[in-house]
Amino acid sequence: MASPSPHDRSRKDDEDDPVEQMISRTGCAELHYAVQECMAEKQDWRVCQDQVKTFIDCMTSFQKARKQQLLRQQSVSPDSAPS
Asked: Where do the structural domains in the chain lie, given as residue ranges?
């Protein structure tokens, strides 16, 4: 019997992995998996630079949007008003 692929997204381990959960919340999970699959298949990170760049771009966009959201919340929050 063949063991499951380490990149099989149906594994229960992924559900408990805090890194997997964090990446999933960013909306970039499929791109993360594409990087992992490329690395597993090619065994050379240099060959996977297109996937890496796409994932980085997605994460950067998420981080910018999250920062803007937090700044908006701070400017609206009564706790942020000077005393």
From this structure: 16-75
